Amino acid sequence: MNQGILKAGTLFLSGVLGASGVALAAAATHTGATVLLGNASAMCLAHAPVLLGLHLGWDRIKTALPTALLLGLGTALFAGDLVSKHFAGKSLFPMAAPAGGLGMIFGWLALAASAFFPSARH
User: Residue span of the signal peptide, if any (predicted)?
Assistant: First the structure.
């Protein structure tokens, strides 16, 4: 797949997660559902800026692609499962939130691994 499309997708997902995080924070505040919606909001707001940073440093961070995929999809899966539990009363699928959490953990480890790859100088 085209690297430009993947890079643009990272920026798009950053914006969507940021907007979702703010909306979920408002929903948590107004409904009192701070456990599920508050946690979903926190994860979205924590990872949206990282995806923006990956977009900006795409050419210098050698693990930007796997990091973006793991963090972005992991966050969406984790938060989506919590939102589903709140609004639909059931999980997206068994172990969805833990799978998303593992995705986020491995995403952060992929970012840490980039320290061992020389970056391109532009």
Answer: 1-25
